[in-house]
Amino acid sequence: MSLSVEKILLSYLEIDLPRTNEELREELSLFAGGKPRLQGRALFQSEGELETDGNVQLRDSGTIAYEGVEQEVDEELCRRIAAQLAEMGDKLEREMKIKPEVVNGLVDAMLNQTLLEEHLAATVQSLVQTVPPGVEQEMAAVAIAMILTKKAVTNAPSLLQNICRTTTRFVERNYRACLERLARQR
C-alpha cells in the first residue's frame, strides 16, 4: 500500500473546510474527481515540467510508492495522516495566528499565475520559524502548507485545484520522508 499526498490533502480539506460554502464543496469535488478546471480558454494547471527538449514530462499526482513500485493507495492511512495533520494544524493556528496578508499574498500570486512551489516554500519556511519550541519542524511545515492551502481556497474557491496541485507537488518533493514516518507509525 502507498500514500498519496493528493489524497492526504483532500482528506485534510474535507475535515477542515466550512460545509456551508457550496462553491468550495463543488471545487473540492472537481479536484477529487480529477477533472481539470478551465480558466478562460486555457487549462490553468500543470502536472509536469517543461524539459529542455520542449516536451512536458508528466508525473503522478503525489503518490508515494514504496521500494520504487507503484502500489494501491491506502485511503484509510491517508485519512488518518490527514486527521493528524489537521489536529496539529489546529494547535498551530491557535498558537501562531497566521496573518491574513500572508494568505492574501498566496491568493494574489495564484491569481497572477505566479504562485510557484518556491513562493509557497518561502512562505512555509518563514512561518516554520515562528513554530513553538518542541514541535517537529518537518511535521509543522507540512501542517502549515495544509493550513495555508485551506485558508487560500476558503478565500478564493475557484483557485482550489491550482493551489492544491502546487501544495501537493511541494509536499511530495520536500516532505516525503515526514509522511513516510507518519505512515509507519500506524
Automatic annotation (TrEMBL):
Any Gene Ontology biological process = positive regulation of release of cytochrome c from mitochondria
Q: Where in the cell is it found?
A: Cytoplasm; Mitochondrion outer membrane
Q: Which GO terms describe its cellular component?
A: cytosol; mitochondrial outer membrane; mitochondrion
Keyword list, A-Z: Apoptosis, Cytoplasm, Membrane, Mitochondrion, Mitochondrion outer membrane
Q: Pfam families in the record, alphabetically?
A: BID
Q: What is its main location?
A: cytoplasm
Subunit relationships: Forms heterodimers either with the pro-apoptotic protein BAX or the anti-apoptotic protein BCL2.
Q: What is this protein called?
A: BH3-interacting domain death agonist
The gene name reads: bid
